[in-house]
Amino acid sequence: MIPRDLAIFVAAAALGWACTPDADTGLDTTSETDTVADVEAASPLMERARVLFETVPAVPPELEGNPMTAVKVELGKKLYFEPRLSQSWLISCNTCHNLGLGGVDLMETSIGHGWQAGPRNAPTVLNSVYNLAQFWDGRAADLMEQAQGPVQAAVEMSSTPERTVATLKSIPDYVVMFGEAFPGEADPVTFANMARAIEAFEATLITPNSPFDRYLDGDDAALTEDENAGLALFMDSGCTACHGGILLGGSSYQRFGAVRNPGAELLPPEDRGRFNVTGNPNDEFAFKVPVLRNVELTAPYFHTGKVWELGESVAVMGEAQLGKDFTVEEVGKITSFLASLTGDQPEVDYPVLPVHTADTPQPDPWVGLGAGTH
Ligand code: HEC
Ligand code: HEC
User: Fold this and answer.
1) What is the pTM of this model?
2) Residues with beta carbon inside 6 Å of ligand 2?
3) Is 156 a catalytic residue?
4) Which ligand has an atom closest to residue 156 CA?
5) Which of 29, 34, 26, 33 has its CA nearest to residue 55?
6) Using CA atoms, how far apart are residues 203 and 196, in angstroms rounded to an integer?
7) Distance CA 165, CA 359 (A)
8) Architecture of the structural domain at 41-59+207-339
9) Running along the chain, 374 residues long, what does each successive block of 10 average in pLDDT?
């Protein structure tokens, strides 16, 4: 526990946030001296849990090669909510990763430009900074690389880097903000810098202080009896082989149907998952293990979005991944435990976006409809 706290402290100090709540991000980034973590485990169950899981830190991590200044985070927030990054002027990142809805769109698979359906369910952006890579198949290494995809994807925002840069350069307030966020650069308004700013904002979208985090920090009363029993079942059944760490997921690729094939509705043969990225036959039907943080908020479930009830997804997991048929009671307990993973949602003040000009490329909601993915 001590190294983690130290890391948080160092990160907070490096960000200059150790004592200053950040009005810009709307997040309270005041660092608290986390003494509870040093509290001795109240039970053997807590002791075991502390080995397998980690709490969500109270302050965002540092990003490699992308210093998180307050001005950059603020710019990234505006861009996250900016529908004019889309060809139609209707779709922003927040359309599909709605921060009022746990960072998802509550659709089976996302709907983007021209009401086109995308091929997969939208994962949450909350805590996504801790993923080993981005997307269900991990095809983007980090959030900076990821953010360039949806803007260009025909079924999502359907724009181009050229159109995006022309849009941003036509809006004087954005030119000023990019200059401040990327000081010393001759031409700061670039597609890559747009992605860097969005990444910096996304890194602030973390959800600490869930009942389960308080439990890990030593508060035995933070979980109800059912949640406690669910945690024990979650660990004893072997869910933790894939769902551990900070996110209870997001750290490996695993075959869906490791033990029993869940059937074509949940695992349609045309989406071969990680195999599409690596070409390695061992990766067929492997997907990035989804994070279970805030999972209660992020229905429907699985990459197909075919399951709406969290309990049903638990039952599917038992059968498909572990070859276990849980009783209704066991499913209920595990589901209760999963609900204890809902943390403090980031409070984001809706940003006022700068006014466009006569030079801004105008919305084009109808043309350019075609197939494609990001
Ligand atoms: C039309 C809906 C849509 C829009 C708009 C959209 N996304 Fe996504 N996003 C998705 C879907 C669907 C996926 C999963 C695709 C896949 O894995 O193949 C995804 C994946 C992601 C992921 C990966 C999360 C993970 O756990 O792997 C991040 C991060 C993300 N989007 C951020 C963004 C940002 C930033 C924007 C704006 C620049 C954006 N998205 C715009 C639908 C959308
Ligand atoms: C062998 C690895 C593995 C094990 C063991 C495992 N899971 Fe999963 N879990 C996955 C993968 C992979 C997915 C994504 C499947 C897909 O949609 O392609 C997933 C998806 C989920 C989801 C859906 C999340 C979402 O947002 O879509 C839940 C809930 C879940 N698992 C809970 C559990 C529980 C509870 C257990 C134990 C009973 C468990 N898992 C065991 C690998 C595993």
Assistant:
1) 0.90
2) 234, 237-239, 241-243, 254, 256, 258, 287, 289-290, 292, 295, 298, 301-303, 313-314, 317-318, 321-322, 334
3) yes
4) 1
5) 34
6) 11
7) 12
8) Orthogonal Bundle (1.10)
9) 38 37 41 55 94 97 96 98 96 97 97 92 98 95 92 88 97 98 97 97 98 97 98 98 98 97 96 96 97 98 98 98 98 98 97 97 79 46
